[in-house]
Design goal:
single chain; 200 residues; alpha+beta; Muramoyl-pentapeptide Carboxypeptidase, domain 2; two-stranded antiparallel sheet
């Protein structure tokens, strides 16, 4: 493992996770370069902040469920290559139903540089003690205006988004306004470094 990084399942007891980019259940429809196993890594500082968030969530009878954290640059490069390839329609309905595939990059849903590659960004949601996910008014990686904070989702989903945001902000994270699931440490240990190591 790169110095300064840890496996989050080892460093943050109590989290749940499904590393979506290690599976075919993601917007590319296939496992992504850089994800050799269904585990998530992140900086030591990210893990410490997530531990605070876990404690706050547990105080509300909830758990954290993670989808992504550290993302090697090669995975970002794979996203860009996928966006440039012809449309096959396999993931459009779930992940980008209202835009053309060719607009994903211009609209900012995928970028050449990702905060995830710095190791202190996480994609996550809230779950019940049994692991079932709370309603959030849209799935992970739904590239649509409905994914924005403050979007007109149903009352339960709106409240759950606010619960997640409150927990994360109290734990030292800043939200990304276009994606309700995406949070970055306010004080990152590597704010200008985009890593490309494979966690092991």
């Amino acid at each position: 493992m790169q110095r300064g990084f840890v496996w989050l399942d080892e460093a943050v007891p109590g989290i749940l996770w499904d590393a979506k980019y290690a599976t075919s259940d993601n917007f590319t429809g296939a496992p992504v370069d850089g994800y050799a196993q269904n585990r998530l890594a992140g900086t030591v500082e990210l893990a410490a902040a997530l531990a605070r968030a876990v404690a706050l969530a547990e105080g509300e009878g909830l758990r954290l469920f993670l989808w992504d954290a550290y993302r090697p640059q090669r995975a970002v490069d794979r996203f860009l290559a996928w966006c440039a390839a012809p449309e096959d329609g396999r993931t459009k309905q779930k992940h980008y139903p209202n835009i053309a595939k060719g607009d994903i990059v211009p609209l900012g849903y995928v970028a050449a540089r990702s905060g995830h590659s710095r190791g202190s960004t996480v994609d996550l949601t809230l779950a019940r003690p049994d692991g079932s996910l709370l309603e959030m008014g849209g799935c992970f990686d739904l590239m649509d205006a409905i994914s924005r904070h403050g979007a007109p989702v149903n009352g339960m989903a709106a409240r759950n988004r606010l619960r997640l945001r409150a927990i994360m902000e109290k734990s030292g994270f800043a939200p990304y306004e276009n994606e309700w699931w995406h949070y970055t440490l306010r004080v990152e240990p590597y704010p200008h470094t985009y890593f490309d190591f494979l966690p092991e």
